[in-house]
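User: If only I could read backbone structure tokens as easily as an amino acid sequence. Underneath my words sits a plain record pairing an amino acid chain with its backbone structure tokens. This is the protein in question:
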Amino acid sequence: MSSASRIPALVALASATVLGAASLPAAAADAYPSRPIRLIVAYPTGGISDTVARALAERLSEQMGNSVVVENKAGAGGSIGMDAVAKAAPDGYTIGFSSTSPLTLNPHVGRVNYDPQADVAPVMSVMYSPVILVATSSFSGKTFQDLVAQGKARPGSVRWATSGLGTVGHVVLEQVKARSQADLTLIPYKGAGQQMNDALGGQFEVMSTNASPVLTQQMQAGKLRALAVGAPRRIEALPDVPTFAELGFPKANLTSTFGIFAPGKTPAPIVARLNAELNKALAAPEVRQRLLRGGEVPTGGSAADFAKVIRTEYEENGRIVREANIKTE
């Protein structure tokens, strides 16, 4: 069976989780957890993913009466961390925090060492992170339209940095190139840290990156300037910055969805318990404010809701990758 044909299994698994939780003894979920839970973060320390994951871990520890210990396993666009979750014992004592890309994008652009449909169970969507296109001191233009005009008038003169090949920021670039026919030069990094350092040094003209407190600080300081944002609507932190859709690039109007995942065969009552506790933690004012200050948008909801998001993203990303011929190998 192909990966594409197995994607509905995510929805079936999430639905079974909800229904199964009601039919199994309540004690199965009530007895959980009885020892510390490991929360694997698929990205480095210090970023917005790490910050949000630690805020959730703190709340979960308080709510569930057991420690939730954060462990960072970064690399390969989140696939290393997701692989660790997929291969962990399905007992609820290892869960992961990641964007959906290791399940919905990475399998289309390169190899992953897990089955993105069978080996991982969606637990809850936590937030979506807008993709922001920002200009550095090396860009002489003022607007997104200036960027496109320069890319057409002087092919290759606009260097566009992303946090890696096959990332959402890379997909945004390819969508802009395809619609505008501007000649824009991809500069792929191996993570957001060095990308930000080089942006502040003016090593390229523009970069696409996720919203974060560090990015917000640098924009407020005037060192970086937002040109466009990928989000369903303008974001509260940047009310004057248009979305890619407003600018006439709806296919580039992408966000990164982040959430909590468990190993694929984790018992339904445990997934349901985690989902309930995570929704409660996400509703805590201090957690919501931490997300909003960084430009993130809290989501929440059921495991089935999250599975539907993943299915839609998987199918849409597959189409985009095929059309743009995006590869990492």
